[in-house]
Amino acid sequence: MVQYNSFASWGWLESLSPETMASVEVVLGDVRDPNSVDEFVFDAEVVYHLAALIAIPYSYRAPRSYLETNAGGTLNVLEAARRHGTPRVVHTSTSEVYGTARRVPIDEQHPLQAQSPYAASKIAADKLAESYVLSFSLPVVTLRPFNTFGPRQSARAVIPTIISQLAAGQAEVQLGAVAPTRDFTFVTDTAQAFVAVGSAPLEQVAGKVLNSGTGREISIGDLAATVAALMGRPMQVAAAVERLRPPDSEVMRLVCDFSAMQSATGWSPNRTLEDGLSATIAWFSDPANLARYRPDAYNV
Questions:
Q1: Which of 17, 88, 204, 238 has the fewest CB atoms in 10 Å of its CB?
Q2: In Å, how far are 140, 187, 198 from 194, measured between CA atoms?
């Protein structure tokens, strides 16, 4: 399901070959609409629920839309799955629900802290999923990825922001806070995590919340320096006020404990940060790909 739009656009799916898409049915709909979701979920063996608004800065401007999409949309998915007896639902969470780490590495028992309206909407969605497990025995597994990155990612995220500015020839890179640390996971590893929780024996994952990440943290400042070194470009970081979160909203530290995920499914990350960055840099360095971005603009 892709969100309905008057251009009938499928987003990045349109960049895939007809051969790749031959066995894929794409439906335009809206996760906020119960009827759209009900028709989509009917007769599914596994439902992967990734529909969400995810940009944290925009959640300060439009918090209601985040609650309606992330919590209300999740409720629609859960209700449809309950109604149709769906054998498995994979619900997508986010490491942002933990807020700034109180202890590291962060395991699934870490307290939840809503440091942005986005995080609050995802906590609400996670708790709805938990309630349907406990109230209706719905076979839901919640995957909680840590900071996925890779080719095609929106420039609202920090790695595409850094790479696209450098690839466009800018020596001064505009960033927000550079002290926070994150646990960056390459997109193919996150994709394999979804496959793992969707295909593992149900008794090993049903009702569980499972983290996926690398267990390695890096500050945004050090990340920018690493990207510049891999690209062989000189770089200076310039602080951009509009890119800063409110002080108490900034999540200062995230680093993943994925041992429960590994134990339940056998999954572990395969790509190092540097390996993933190199692949991402190569994609963004293609002029045809870079042309899709506006490196001089701040994507909220």
A1: 17
A2: 13, 11, 6
Return per-residue pLDDT of the chain as tens, 300 residues: 999 999 999 999 999 999 999 999 999 999 999 999 999 999 999 999 999 999 999 999 999 999 999 999 999 999 999 999 999 999 999 999 999 999 999 999 999 999 999 999 999 999 999 999 999 999 999 999 999 999 999 998 999 999 999 999 998 999 999 999 999 999 999 999 999 999 999 999 999 999 999 999 999 999 999 999 999 999 999 989 989 999 999 999 999 999 999 999 999 999 999 999 999 999 999 999 999 999 988 888
Return the number of other C-beta atoms located less than 10 Å from residue 216's C-beta: 17
Which tokens belong to 15?
């960049």
Please state, in angstroms and rounded to a whole number, the distance separating the CA atoms of residues 262 and 269: 10
Torsion from C-alpha of 81, 73, 147, 217, nearest 10 degrees: -80
List for the chain the helix, strand, coil content (%; round to 5). 45, 15, 40
Task: State the amino acid at position 256 in one-letter form.
Answer: C
d(Cα 94, Cα 54) in Å, to the nearest integer? 9
User: Strands 148-149 and 185-186, how do they pair?
Assistant: parallel
Contact 4, 27 (CB under 8 A): no
Residue 97 in contact with residue 144, Cβ under 8 Å? Answer: yes
Please choose, from the candidates 299, 284, 51, the residue with its C-alpha nearest in 3D space to the C-alpha of residue 150: 284
For 276, the token pair is 């993933």
What are the structural domain ranges in the chain?
Answer: 31-290
Nearest Cα residue to 165 out of 227, 245, 226, 221: 227
Q: List the CATH code of the domain at 31-290.
A: 3.40.50.720
| Secondary element (H or E) of residue 148 | strand 148-149
221 vs 51: CA distance, rounded Å: 30
Residue carrying structure tokens 């070194």: 229
